[in-house]
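Work Package 3 (structural annotation) set out to generate three-dimensional models for the target panel prioritized at the project kickoff. During this period the team completed the workflow that converts sequence records into discrete structure tokens, so that structures can be stored uniformly alongside our sequence database. As a representative example, we reproduce one entry of 240 residues exactly as it appears in the project archive.
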Amino acid sequence: MADFGISAGQFVAVVWDKSSPVEALKGLVDKLQVLTGNEGRRSVENINQLLQSAHKESSFDIILSGLVLGSTTLHSAEILTEIARILRPGECLFLKEPVETAVDNNSKVKTASKLCSALTLSGLMEVKELQWEPLTPEEVLDRLLFVQITGKKLNFEMGSSSQLKLSITKKSSPSVKPAVDPAAAKLWTLSANDMEDDSMDLIDSDETGKREGKGTDKLPAQLPLPWDGRLQTWGKDASE
């Protein structure tokens, strides 16, 4: 029997069916015990009871199914999905199953390509055929062969999520107010002293309207203008 890369300390599951002799099952388990050592663990599951097992997700490093001598088990889609569930991410399944060498839509036996597709749909990747062997010389004539296939589980659980850590640096807003030009501030600012300055004349919009004959409609607010005696015409005779 090939060791399938099994090493000390690993957890290995063996899936078998009633077509396998008990002596063959016991011989396989004894060999696995030597490979995994006392630190490892071996679990034996009947394929008909696998769906009712209490195994948690990602429980096993290696799963061997249909590899017990004399096994002729067929793996349903549900069984393959369960195997993928209890297999640890990045680890391998080794499976053996009888397949048809020609397509027969009325047969329950898959072709090798359909079996590989079923393994891929169950969530495994890197699915590939390892070897072919006849069931018996007579069964070769019936277009049946054994195929041994391996597949690896993805490096993460299907449906799992991981929180992304984002580092965001906030820009500090400047606390210093922009400088104001003193000349501009003086130009647009009136103080109490400006209001008493004789050189400043505030224009009353009402008075301006009356002098121009426009009634008492108020004009928009105007800025105070500097005093210029040359521009004054109030109180003078119009003939001058």
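The chain has a mean pLDDT of 79.
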